[in-house]
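Hi support team,

I've been running sequence recovery on a batch of backbones for a student project. Most finish fine, but this one hangs at about 90% for roughly twenty minutes before it completes. I'm not sure whether the input is malformed or the queue is just slow. I've pasted the structure tokens below so you can try to reproduce it. Let me know if you need the job ID as well.

Thanks,
M.K.
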């Protein structure tokens, strides 16, 4: 199908290492946009990282399929206009290929097999080379040229023989001499281009020519035709004169003999344009074939196709920090941002719809948008939005929770048919099942990177219902922190181990100056392997602002 006719797609995606709000907000907002769209645009929820156990529980509870994973928002080959040059078979003649190139106004044709697999390429340069550099009068047979190609190229008629057979043994020559001299250079199975002289035609047959091309539309006697049949000589009549026929006949060779088949430079539909550009700049080819992930030929692209490249279109939810966005977000077109965090470092090329409210959860904002636009919230969407609010506000315990968040969550709970307290406990319990997880999986369960005054640091948050679970997590994470700093290329790393019931956070950290930063921000010291931050449960409202203040004072 022509890519230009495909429905326009917009991705709705949250931040890396997504939490429940990030995932549920993407699903709910994509659903809202699809109900309101009028131009055929399809809004697809995506995720920029692996799901944590809490979110998995939520999606399973409400029987919702997880969004597909995306790791890069950069433009791909499938996002540009791919020229649908049809693949041709390797047996067609050079002349036919040349005429197709002129008709299509292209310089390269792809050769494919019956399974639509790419076998090679033929270019105008290859065809020109076949005319200019060939001095071998046996090349027609070495190329195993089908008589059908010869007939088509010479616009001839076959009088004797099988047009589907192949000329594959002998040389090509023009019988311009008298019969006595012809006997000296005609050999078995040769293809002889000849005029209307009966004696010459008879001599060629007696010398066991494999094919005889009679030029100028000359009448061929029944005697010659009968002798040709008896001697298994293919007999072809052409309207062209001897000179023209001799010039044209090499164009009947199959393109597979000259096509490029080794070290072909191809691109896949999933390849990213940045990589494609680098390869194109190094190569002098004008056109490049594209294959899909099954290896089937799709079409051709060239450098000029990159000029009008269409960027991926995104709607970002639950974040506006570049460091938290999907990779290569700069290479995408951001249409909207729906968020409840502080203004971050993300920049856009054009004005966007940006809705940012001081609420405890992005899901609360999306609830408001449903109501404002008069769209009914069904049981499933209500369950997802309610789960997000309960998660982000730690069941209303977080200082980020507003009266609006709580009122919305309770209303949504009624629509979804859940008891907020019972459901939240089950959800948190599912999220604090760390026994089977690796340190890396736990670390990235809810991790965000920040940059303040040139300092790059990351903060992860793990919430649990008991101190025993937090102690278990601490033992797993401590050996991994230094490795994580190296992988993320950050200066410091902090992990908030938040006890939901106590409404306290037990902080662990790594990196030069990390402990001193906690001490300056909260006036606490390490005790028993933790920095105890009493009453601190919110990264957004209670931790990052304090860190920023301490860094600015420094």
């Amino acid at each position: 199908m022509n890519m230009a006719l495909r429905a326009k797609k917009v991705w709705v995606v949250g931040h890396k290492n997504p939490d429940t709000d990030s995932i549920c907000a993407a699903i709910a907002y994509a659903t809202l946009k699809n109900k309101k769209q009028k131009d055929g645009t399809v809004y697809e929820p995506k995720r920029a990282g692996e799901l944590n156990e809490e979110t998995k529980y939520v999606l399973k509870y409400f029987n919702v399929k997880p969004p597909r994973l995306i790791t890069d928002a950069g433009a791909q080959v499938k996002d540009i206009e791919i020229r649908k040059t049809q693949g041709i078979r390797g047996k067609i003649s050079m002349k036919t290929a040349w005429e197709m190139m002129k008709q299509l106004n292209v310089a390269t044709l792809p050769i494919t097999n019956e399974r639509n697999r790419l076998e090679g390429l033929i270019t105008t340069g290859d065809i020109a080379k076949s005319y200019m550099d060939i001095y071998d009068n046996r090349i027609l047979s070495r190329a195993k040229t089908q008589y059908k190609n010869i007939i088509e190229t010479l616009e001839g008629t076959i009088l004797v023989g099988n047009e589907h057979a192949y000329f594959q043994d002998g040389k090509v020559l023009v019988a311009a001499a008298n019969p006595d001299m012809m006997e000296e250079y005609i050999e078995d199975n040769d293809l002889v281009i000849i005029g209307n002289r009966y004696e010459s035609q008879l001599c060629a047959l007696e010398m066991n020519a494999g094919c005889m091309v009679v030029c100028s539309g000359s009448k061929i006697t029944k005697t010659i035709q009968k002798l040709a049949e008896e001697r298994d000589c293919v007999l072809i009549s052409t309207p062209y004169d001897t000179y023209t026929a001799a010039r044209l006949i090499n164009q009947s060779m199959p393109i597979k003999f000259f096509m490029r088949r080794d070290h072909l430079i191809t691109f896949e539909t999933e390849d990213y344009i940045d990589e494609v550009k680098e390869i194109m700049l190094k190569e002098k080819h004008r056109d490049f074939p594209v294959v899909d992930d099954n290896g089937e030929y799709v079409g051709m692209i060239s450098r000029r196709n990159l000029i009008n490249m269409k960027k991926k279109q995104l709607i970002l939810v639950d974040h506006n920090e570049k460091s938290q966005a999907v990779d290569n977000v700069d290479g995408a077109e951001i249409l909207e941002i729906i968020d409840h965090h502080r203004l971050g470092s993300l920049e856009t090329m054009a004005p966007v719809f940006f809705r940012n409210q001081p609420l405890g959860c992005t899901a609360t904002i999306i609830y408001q948008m449903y109501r404002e636009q008069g769209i009914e919230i069904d049981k499933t969407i209500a369950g997802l939005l309610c789960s997000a609010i309960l998660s982000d506000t730690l069941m209303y315990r977080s200082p980020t929770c507003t009266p609006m968040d709580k009122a919305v969550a309770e209303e949504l709970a009624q629509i979804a048919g859940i008891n907020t307290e019972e459901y939240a406990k089950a959800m948190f319990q599912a999220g604090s099942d760390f026994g089977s997880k690796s340190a890396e999986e736990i670390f990235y369960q809810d991790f965000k990177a920040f940059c303040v005054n040139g300092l790059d640091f990351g903060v992860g948050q793990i919430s649990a219902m008991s101190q025993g679970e937090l102690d278990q997590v601490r033992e797993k994470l401590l050996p991994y922190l230094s490795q994580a700093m190296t992988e993320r290329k950050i200066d410091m790393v902090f992990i908030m181990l938040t006890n939901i019931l106590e409404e306290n956070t037990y902080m662990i950290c790594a990196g030069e100056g990390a402990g001193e930063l906690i001490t300056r921000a909260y006036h606490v010291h390490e005790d028993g392997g933790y920095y105890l931050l009493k009453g601190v449960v919110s990264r957004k409202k209670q931790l990052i602002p304090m860190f920023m203040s301490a860094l600015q004072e420094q």
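--
Follow-up from support: It reproduced on our side and the slowdown came from queue contention, not your input. The radius of gyration is 37 Å. No action needed from you.
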